[in-house]
Design a protein that fits this description.
alpha+beta, 14 helices, 6-stranded mixed β-sheet, globular, 564 residues
Length: 564
């Protein structure tokens, strides 16, 4: 899913620029956006850290759609790490405001979690007082602070005073609590945002979902092609060019979604490397190519005359412009696909890190007078798929809607022990799986009602309304080496070990569902209906499914086996 920061292009590109100097049009009016990200990196926050790495590019891509064109700077602060200085409240400014997006990405990937005290007030104070916030009265100044412990535990500073100090300087504070909105700690986080005109959101940091699209592979290839258009200059140019490639690799190692989103960023107006790339530098009318020293150029360019160098830069600029146009077109299709998939997630999509940040950014940018430039092109409609002919189909679809918000009672992934088979539906579309069964597959089990991770209570029948969703994945031998559909959905590989042999989840294999109605409901198994849903969302079976009943009638707890 769930768009990202160097100096912006200030004027028209070099497409019209020939060997002789030409007049460059005046830059379009721009307005500053300062974005400070404050992350809890205590021992329990690996999920939050991965979510930030995953969605940095998505957030910046969203900002790139704004008008007036923004000049974006990002700062990163972390807190809750016992390795930090106790005098600072275990807070560190990892990077002050910078327009260099690759540096921000580098810092994110260098972070590791480490247990410590999490002082929300202290990190807000550090962000407000230590960062060089824009003095422009029209600037949009945003601070996001995220964590999973009480926001009120700082012994020296209180969150109320720090939030008020922030908004007095025009800094909007948004609070993201990594936990349930009904938890006792949630109101404290809500107050942090309320007192600084920000928004409050809750997310499930360990249940991250990313949406892969058919366009991700092409965008990743275009990202590599964009790198070939850079013309390094300066003594540290090689270091910066290497870091660009390193951050490409970091994104790709996460999954294809992050790599695709980073490509969209690299093709946007918010990604500029004017400090080491002549193509970006020459987009500034104040930059003089003749001032670049020969020794600051790559060896293969040092023998060029000024006119030859200008022609080379112009050629690279034209090539980059062509690649950016391709990225923009694919990006629109990708964004439309993601929006369609997010609608399918329902309420579950609202508890993702990306959604929490993007919704805040959109609302607060609009309040400051920014407008989005364009909406993504509508996604092409797929051929209508047919569900099985059963009166229980609507019941099943409603029952599984937003199931990612249920309790994931398996915790980590497991291997299915049974050999249940799923019927295929009439249309010639993608089926549930190659074998049409979930025995031996990797799975995660979600339960609507559970006490902790226990969804079966010995001697007690299941509640009416209980829904059990077994999310199945093809099992691939060996540890995960490349991105899979499963790793793209959850942001990390789903690995299992059975009898000393490691394997991991590959392609999606559909859902196996049990839903409890009243015990006397006709055409049910004592109130239970069984259903299978293939990877495309087609309900391939629903109701009294004989194959399911044969298996579950041996269960001693109201057709429920529990975790085996």
């Amino acid at each position: 899913m769930i768009r990202t920061l160097p100096t912006l292009a200030l004027a028209s590109l070099l497409a019209a620029q020939g060997p002789a100097p030409t007049t460059v049009s005046s830059p379009a009016p721009q307005r500053p956006i300062d974005l400070a990200i404050c992350l809890d990196i205590s021992g329990s926050m690996d999920g939050l850290l991965n979510a930030a790495r995953q969605n940095l590019w998505a957030v910046v891509n969203e900002l790139a759609t704004l008008k007036p064109v923004p000049t974006l700077r990002v700062a990163l602060l972390t807190y809750g790490c016992s390795a930090y200085d106790a005098e600072t409240g275990w807070v560190r400014v990892d990077t002050g405001f910078t327009s260099d997006l690759d540096t921000v990405s580098q810092k994110l990937f260098e972070l590791t979690t480490n247990g410590g005290d999490e002082y929300v007030a202290r990190v807000v104070h550090a962000a407000v007082e230590q960062l060089d916030w824009s003095k422009d009265p029209k600037a949009l100044k945003l601070l996001f602070v995220a964590g999973n412990e009480a926001a009120t535990q700082d012994p020296k500073l209180d969150t109320a005073s720090q939030s008020k100090a922030a908004i007095e300087k025009g800094i909007v504070v948004n609070a993201i609590y990594c936990g349930s909105p009904t938890h006792a700690d949630a109101p404290g986080w809500r107050e942090v945002a309320k007192l600084a005109d920000g928004t409050f959101a809750t997310i499930e940091q360990d249940n991250g979902v990313v949406i892969a699209t058919p366009f991700d592979g092409q965008l990743t290839e275009l990202s590599a092609a964009l790198n070939t258009t850079y013309v390094p200059y300066g003594k540290e140019a090689g270091v910066w060019a290497q870091n660009q490639e390193r951050q490409d690799s970091n994104a790709a190692r996460l999954n294809s979604v992050a790599a695709a989103q980073r490509c969209q960023t690299k093709a946007s107006s918010l990604y500029s490397n004017a400090g080491w790339d002549l193509v970006d530098a020459c987009s500034d009318p104040k930059f003089k190519l003749e001032d670049v020293k020969k020794e600051d150029l790559p060896e293969n360019l040092r023998a060029m005359s000024l006119d030859q160098l200008r022609e080379h830069v112009t050629a690279q600029q034209k090539k980059r412009a062509e690649l950016k146009a391709k990225v923009e077109e694919l990006g629109k299709q990708r964004d439309a696909h993601v929006q369609a998939e997010m609608k399918k997630l329902g309420d579950a999509g609202a508890r993702l890190f990306e959604h929490a940040v993007l919704e805040s950014v959109r609302q607060q940018a609009e309040a400051k007078g920014f407008q989005r430039q364009v909406e993504p092109a509508p996604a092409p409609e797929a051929p209508a798929a047919k569900d099985v002919d059963s009166p229980f189909v609507p019941v099943v679809k409603e029952a599984v809607r937003g199931y990612a918000q249920f309790v994931r009672v398996t915790g980590s992934a497991r291997v299915a022990p049974t050999l249940c088979r799923a019927p295929t539906s009439p249309p010639p579309l993608a089926r549930l799986s190659k074998a049409g069964k979930h025995g031996g597959k990797v799975y995660l089990l979600y339960a609507r009602f559970a006490d902790g991770l226990e969804y079966v209570k010995p001697g007690e029948p299941a509640k009416v309304g209980q829904t059990l969703v077994k999310e199945a994945w093809e099992r691939v031998d060996g540890p995960a080496a490349d991105a899979t559909e499963a790793s793209q959905r959850y942001g990390a590989a789903l690995e299992v070990e059975e009898n000393g042999a490691k394997s991991h989840a590959g392609d999606a294999a559909g859902l196996f569902v049990m839903h409890k109605l009243a015990a006397g409901t006709p055409d049910t198994d004592g109130g239970w209906i069984y259903a299978t849903i293939d990877r495309t969302g087609v309900v391939t079976g629903a109701g009294r499914m004989a194959s399911c009943i044969r298996c579950h009638e041996s269960a001693t707890e109201d057709r429920q086996f529990g975790l085996r």
